[in-house]
Amino acid sequence: MRIDVLTIFPGMFDAVLNESIIKRAQKKQKVIIKMHNLRDYTNDRHRTVDDKPFGGGPGMILKLEPIYKAIHHILGKNVAEKRKDSKVILLSPQGRKFDQQIAKRLARFKRLLLICGHYEGVDERVRNLFVDYEISIGDYILTCGELPAMVLIDAIVRLIPGVLGSRESKFRESFENNLLEYPQYTRPAVFCGMKVPNVLLSGNHKRIETWRAQQSLERTKKRRPDMLKGSKPWMKE
């Protein structure tokens, strides 16, 4: 997979891309992640990427021209063609709320281009011309779209086959099958009078699996009952 990121703050990604699982995934060539500075696609000496909104109002809007030039440069001929294996995503508070099911769908594509929103948003024509999916990571306001882009990258990369060490690990985590993960324990078996459940020490794998399934269901009912309702399909394949 290849992930391109269009941003005015490429330096923000350094720590995230050069640590832990994402770093290893790049080393193993499971994913290629490229930063593109939107200011490199401007024409004026101040490298201006924003302007005042028509009709008045607070804040500034990301301009169409630099984004237009950047996308055409990054995607080349794929801009004009129907993009079956590549998708353009705008990170925006107006988007569909990100979840594990969306992450799994996005991980199937060969290429993603993430546009990091900023200021009061982007020129609406960007949506009309290029954007396939608009995604938000939650109902709150952030300074910019770079942090949501990092969240998407982390959630998607770990789903790429061969990235995680254990083949089963990604299927036993929270939000898989619309359930939260069961309680986990490690040594010591007793600490400050708190004991690990006996079933986990029994060595009976069938009993352990049953216990874990029950715990996942009970924890989901208590903490996130909304997850048990499931979600409607959103993305077209």
CATH topology of the largest domain: Alpha/beta knot
The percentage of residues in β strands lies in 15-25%
Main beta sheet, described?
A: 5 strands, parallel
Proportion in helices: 25-40%
Assembly classification: single chain
Structural class: alpha/beta
Count the beta strands.
9
Listing every helix as H and every strand as E from the N terminus to the C terminus, the arrangement reads: EHHEEEHEHEHEHEEH
- How are the strands of the largest sheet arranged? 2-1-6-5-7
Supply the number of structural domains: 2
Shape: elongated
Q: In the CATH classification, which architecture of the largest domain applies?
A: 3-Layer(aba) Sandwich
Low-confidence stretches: none
The CATH C-level name of the largest domain is Alpha Beta
Count of runs of 4 or more consecutive helical residues: 7
Average residue-wise pLDDT? 91
N-C termini distance: 16 Å
Molecular structure report:
By secondary structure, the chain is an alpha/beta fold. 29% of the residues lie in helices and 18% in strands. It has helices spanning 14-17, 20-27, 64-75, 100-106, 124-129, 146-157, 205-223; strands at 2-7, 32-37, 50-51, 61-62, 86-97, 111-116, 133-136, 190-191, 194-195. The longest helix is centred in the C-terminal third of the chain and has 19 residues, at 205-223. The protein is elongated, with a radius of gyration of 22 Å.
